[in-house]
Amino acid sequence: MPHPIAALHPDRLFPAEPVTRAVARRLYENVRELPIISPHGHTDPRWFAENAPFSDPSSLLITPDHYVFRMLYSQGVRLEDLGIASRNPASTPPPDPRAVWRLFARHYGLFRGTPTRLWLDWVLGEVFGVEAPLEEASADRAFDRICERLAEPGFRPRALFERFNIEVLATTESPLDDLRHHAAIRASGWPGRIITTYRPDDVVDPEAPGFLHHLARFAELTGEDVFSWNGYLAAHRKRRAHFARFGATSTDHGHPSAHTANLGPREAEALFQRVLSEARGRTVEPVLAETFRGQMLTEMARLSLDDGLVLQIHPGSWRNHNALLHVRFGTNVGADIPRATDFVGALRPLLNRFGNEPKLAIIVFTLDESSYSRELAPLAGHYPALKLGPAWWFHDSPEGLRRFREQTTETAGFYNTVGFNDDTRAFLSIPARHDVARRVDCAFLARLVAEHRLPEDEALQVACDLAYHLPKTAYRL
Amino acid sequence: MPHPIAALHPDRLFPAEPVTRAVARRLYENVRELPIISPHGHTDPRWFAENAPFSDPSSLLITPDHYVFRMLYSQGVRLEDLGIASRNPASTPPPDPRAVWRLFARHYGLFRGTPTRLWLDWVLGEVFGVEAPLEEASADRAFDRICERLAEPGFRPRALFERFNIEVLATTESPLDDLRHHAAIRASGWPGRIITTYRPDDVVDPEAPGFLHHLARFAELTGEDVFSWNGYLAAHRKRRAHFARFGATSTDHGHPSAHTANLGPREAEALFQRVLSEARGRTVEPVLAETFRGQMLTEMARLSLDDGLVLQIHPGSWRNHNALLHVRFGTNVGADIPRATDFVGALRPLLNRFGNEPKLAIIVFTLDESSYSRELAPLAGHYPALKLGPAWWFHDSPEGLRRFREQTTETAGFYNTVGFNDDTRAFLSIPARHDVARRVDCAFLARLVAEHRLPEDEALQVACDLAYHLPKTAYRL
Amino acid sequence: MPHPIAALHPDRLFPAEPVTRAVARRLYENVRELPIISPHGHTDPRWFAENAPFSDPSSLLITPDHYVFRMLYSQGVRLEDLGIASRNPASTPPPDPRAVWRLFARHYGLFRGTPTRLWLDWVLGEVFGVEAPLEEASADRAFDRICERLAEPGFRPRALFERFNIEVLATTESPLDDLRHHAAIRASGWPGRIITTYRPDDVVDPEAPGFLHHLARFAELTGEDVFSWNGYLAAHRKRRAHFARFGATSTDHGHPSAHTANLGPREAEALFQRVLSEARGRTVEPVLAETFRGQMLTEMARLSLDDGLVLQIHPGSWRNHNALLHVRFGTNVGADIPRATDFVGALRPLLNRFGNEPKLAIIVFTLDESSYSRELAPLAGHYPALKLGPAWWFHDSPEGLRRFREQTTETAGFYNTVGFNDDTRAFLSIPARHDVARRVDCAFLARLVAEHRLPEDEALQVACDLAYHLPKTAYRL
After folding, report:
1. How far apart, in Å, do the first and last CA atoms of chain A sit?
2. Domain locations in chain B?
3. Which among B16, B111, B337 is the nearest to C378, CB-wise?
4. How far apart are CA B460 and CA B453, in angstroms?
5. In Å, how far are B65, B201, B261 from B313, measured between CA atoms?
6. Would you state the pLDDT for residue A68?
7. Rounded Cα–Cα distance for residues B42 and B51 (Å)
């Protein structure tokens, strides 16, 4: 008997074959209520600091979610009509949220077969109790229902955080962020564990717009002479310590490639001065910028050995591929596209310097699935410092998560991976995302059990480790 | 109870698991009799113009099908013995068709597990009523049976076209083709819808043998000064309009890579003159040829915005990889080999110029499956002008079609894809190819339904869209 | 009812779906007792020459198996503690084998989901009759049990060879090896068929440490002036003939890439002299070394046409990626990492020279699974001389073997592949490895049967061919 909303069926994402499904159910029963560990993501700490009601369904579920609006854009819907703010605010008034919602509902069929559909169905049905599948005819009813709910106290950010059974939630901030929202959360006495993450791209990437201005602000915040190499490193050290005081247990680095470098101190200093000098002349030669970013990964690893922060690397996205949209709407508008990414040559300088340190934790992610079995599983199955981040971004989907396990487990095992990251701005979808990951992992394990490749008691232990213990350990939470 | 010919079993290609199979059957019941839309392929329009009987089984099923003879060649069978015409016709007399057929039947086991086997079994069993599986012992009986049938009126090209329930069939012609067969079809009053496609490689690719001669002929046909940049573009415009009068709704471009360029008019003109100048000196520098082909894709997109023709790009095949065979037998002898293909950097100039145009339709194909989830689905899930062509060439097989859906759907959805292309010269296999694609799509959708990822009513709508409505819409038929 | 040791369940690795499983069982029943053909591997011929008892469980099962110790190393276990010999023997005394075993047993859970787990469970349970799953608590009991068994005559190398039903086992030796163990085996009158393989990397790779010393030794062994091009080739010819007298039917080449070259004799000679000259100056320019290795593959093919040896190419591993470990422990310590590997351009010089020779057999392997469907299946499905080696190294696992069939069969068929290689030093796991491969092939074929893509009688013939006849034929055994 199908559930009226497929995404809420209790057996969703389990294989249809009855023996395997029964194993998957048993495994899942033991992990489904484990608290959510969300060690890497992009929610807004202001929500939890201010705990104000979310305003309306569209600005909650559509406008901030590039998975959603990129699909609509790909089918000819204008971003302006979805309420995406243009950089030229004078252009047109923002559309009415109800109009945006109707437009979205009319195109809901585009999401068939996508994880967005699974997540949204869960949010609509399970969080808001919207009954019918979303379509043009039911758009207004759903909109009104959600609006009513959002006005209730139980739908404020902190209440949802508690209802979602989140044990810890990491946000991501620039070193230039004053962490005021994190401070406010702590000052409020609310016990929800919201922690920050040190993401220094805008003071590390010489190609970031405003790089020199960022450095100036970096100097102000730290009192260091960041235009000297030692002062620059000292500023990082201080700021990392500051972030750690707001709960950070990790840093994060979003570079175009996985390139690393391992220069001696004098060469590194000379590189830094050359980068500054070119930056003052407005453009930094790409190969120089690449080398500097790569050197900084190695420097960050060195600092991590001291302060214990986990080092995350998210490489391989060609950001802002669509030049026109970049000019008109800025960043994060669904136009970041993955590229083929080398890890074996690229990570070697870093790994040769620090890869044998069992106390260091480097977590590497990829958007290039061809590297799972070819490069990343062999690397993570060897280097003590290296772990594999979960299927990322376009790949944190049922098929993507399954491919990750199928292509990494045989070489790296389960214990060189770190559980799931939701990595999302879409707060309301967090439980659905973790639930999808847990179900897919249980389905994978159930296949191993049904094919007599792993005893069920061990599979159960692995399921619990993947859902809860591995992320806690790997991220030192 | 297995059907004596596996490929004709009513449940073929459906998953064995009973619940999923039952869903697949129900979905398939609704699509199996939908008319065939064949928007891209390589059948010979002469067949339908002249409507003469096909001569014999070997020249119908073996000689023109490089899937077939490449496999036999790989196992040491000589191309001469299969009736493949050498460029040196004086060499040896062509073999007897019956001898070719016997050789083929003796090696039929080589095709186990290949789509060729599925297609051929269908053609033998369903079109010709050949009963036993083909093997050496039954070769003569099958040969005779097919010969008898080919002599019957119901086995002439137009009768088969009607029996196959083909609503529209596109062939592919060079701008230098006089389209006489298309003209004859129209003049004949026969209502079968056979349309052409504008494939200008031989007047666009400076590395094509005879490039300058082709341009001279291009000038004759159009009355334009094709050795000037504006005249050259005007000739394309005229010829495209001429093709459109013979039903063309698309153009097609088979380039070594997906490289595109977006030069200004003066630069483009200078490039064209430099290409001509080097071509007159016999060899065009490869990087220049690459840039010119890339620029022409952007020019074609510009023309498409005016005349509405859909732009197809088929990149990434290393044509004529086997130099010896190329010298002895020419092109299309099974020696075209795919290479790793970049799309993210390669298509950027074109997409940055025209990718945001919702009225433009660019359909891109790949032979590099690693690009499905990494590059093409993310691109097609963003750019309004871009759609993904179906699994192509070596990959239009059960496993290949399944991988296409598994690796593109979650990011691009179903509606940024365009249904199936048979892309074949093997006319008799067209229904079998579409049937395989429909079955594989139904199997994929059935899995989504059985795993509660999509309600069955929506899956049914998707199945019909993939089989029929999407190709009609995408190719503007 | 699960078997207490999952890996010994009679249905292990078969799909759970009952119809498919039943087909898989029937196919497997017909192949499971076929003799093992092991045409490529790295066992030590001394074992069979001396037939001495193996000393203890750790030096038998852990120390020589980099699959095992790399996983433990990746989780922070020190290689010294696993009994891996350091290059500085004075450093610390080797650990007690029992201590190594306990350390291994404590970490046995790391292997969940890996093929190592399947192989080891089989060795423990089936070869040694160790009953409980291995864990810390049972470590000592298992250690003692295995020690007892190793002292019995039935557990000596030759007895195990016979018990394992191995028809032929190939080892791999350098041209500089005196083959004394092979000679001793033959002199002993023992009928076990152990053959050698000609692996000339250390006299072919100018970047191999000690290259010039190897050449000097090569000269001594052959009496040829190996510092002249013709003498060097003559030395290969002589040494290949010598190896053939000890049963060799193949050569093997482990190069960083699949690069080949096809220079004329005078150019090749000049290249050789330049390589020697640079080698005398201590370092050979990388591109020169690459060209020379590539030229030597073509030379080896030329020699193979004369002496009939099969040419194996194992490209694409970045050997000794971990510089620190390389210095401290030498080669083969689990730090060889695959890279993206091009075959289409790389093999073209060789294939254009000799690819059309039906009498030549080139077997090519890959660590880059993205090349299966994109490059290798299309190449092997065309060139008469080329065959695909089985899933290799990190990929000779259930998922890896399955992907190999799913991604190569539709284009290359089964008959351009060559059955399974165990390619292992871990002698005791050989039956388990072949059994895994046979089961995975039967599971793949069973799916084809259950989905009506292949009749069961033909699937059965394929299963037997893959398990037994293809390796015999392909390796000319």
Report:
1. 41
2. 6-54+157-474, 55-155
3. B337
4. 13
5. 22, 11, 14
6. 95
7. 17
Q: Is C70's Cβ below 8 Å from some Cβ in A?
A: yes
Taking Cα atoms as reference points, which of C475, C358, C405, C439 lies closest to residue B112? Answer: C405
Residues 6+ apart with CB under 8 A from C266: none
Amino acid type, A416: N
Q: Indicate the CATH number for domain C6-53+153-474.
A: 3.20.20.140
Q: Does C358 touch chain B (CB under 8 A)?
A: yes
> Do strands B317-318 and B337-338 pair parallel, antiparallel, or not at all (unpaired)?
antiparallel
Amino acid letter at C475?
Answer: Y
Mean pLDDT of chain C: 96
CATH number for the region C54-152 comes to 1.10.2020.10
Residue B148 corresponds to which amino acid?
E
Cross-chain residue pair A12–B453, CB shorter than 8 Å: yes
| pTM: predicted TM-score of the whole model, two decimal places | 0.97
CA separation for the pair A354, B274 (Å, rounded): 52
**What is the number of residues in chain B?**
477
Backbone phi, then psi, for A352, in 5-degree steps? Answer: -70, -25
Question: Is B366 an interface residue toward A (CB < 8 Å)?
Answer: no
Block residue for tokens 């074959």 = A17
Q: Kindly determine whether residue C458 and residue B110, on different chains, have CB atoms separated by under 8 Å.
A: no
Categorise residue C374: left if φ over 0, alpha if ψ from -120 to 50, beta otherwise.
Answer: alpha
* Contact in structure between A202 and A252 (CB atoms under 8 Å): no
Q: What is the DSSP letter of B358?
A: T
Instruction: Say yes or no: A132 contacts chain B, CB-CB below 8 A.
Output: no
Q: Rounded distance, CA B377 to CA B391, Å?
A: 13
Q: Which residues have a Cβ under 8 Å from the Cβ of B413 and sit 6 or more positions away?
A: A71, A110, A111, A112, A113, A114, B381
* CA–CA dist B319, C26 (Å, integer): 43
CATH 1.10.2020.10 fits B55-155, yes or no: yes
**Pair B126, B149: CB distance under 8 Å:** no
Q: For A357, name the nearest residue in chain C, comparing CA atoms only.
A: C76
Per CATH, which fold does A6-54+162-474 belong to?
Answer: TIM Barrel (3.20.20)
**Cβ separation C374–B338 shorter than 8 A:** yes
**Predicted local confidence at residue B94, as pLDDT:** 83
**Residue B387 contacts A, CB cutoff 8 Å:** no
Task: Give which of C413, C376, C378, C379 is closest to C392, Cα–Cα.
Answer: C376
Residue C1: predicted pLDDT: 38
Is domain B6-54+157-474 annotated with CATH 3.20.20.140? yes
- 10 Å CB burial of residue B323 (0-12, 13-18, 19+) is middle
- List, in order, residues 6 or more apart from C144 with CB less than 8 Å away: none
Per-residue pLDDT tens, chain A, 477 aa: give them: 344 555 689 999 999 999 999 999 999 999 999 999 999 999 999 999 999 999 999 999 999 899 999 999 999 999 999 999 888 766 678 889 999 999 999 999 999 999 999 999 999 999 999 987 899 999 999 999 999 999 999 999 999 999 999 999 999 999 999 999 999 999 999 999 999 999 999 999 999 999 999 999 999 999 999 999 999 999 999 999 999 999 999 999 999 999 999 999 999 999 999 999 999 998 899 999 999 999 999 999 999 999 999 999 999 999 999 999 999 999 999 999 999 999 999 999 999 999 999 999 999 999 999 999 999 999 999 999 999 999 999 999 999 999 999 999 999 999 999 999 999 999 999 999 999 999 999 999 999 999 999 999 999 999 999 999 999 999 999
Render pLDDT for B420-455 as a digit per residue (tens, 0 to 9). 999 999 999 999 999 999 999 999 999 999 999 999
Determine the Cα–Cα distance for residues C384 and C369; give it in Å rounded to an integer.
22
How distant is the alpha carbon of residue B156 from its chain centre? 22
The residue with tokens 């990322």 is A392
For residue C11, list chain A residues with Cβ-Cβ distance below 8 A: 451-452
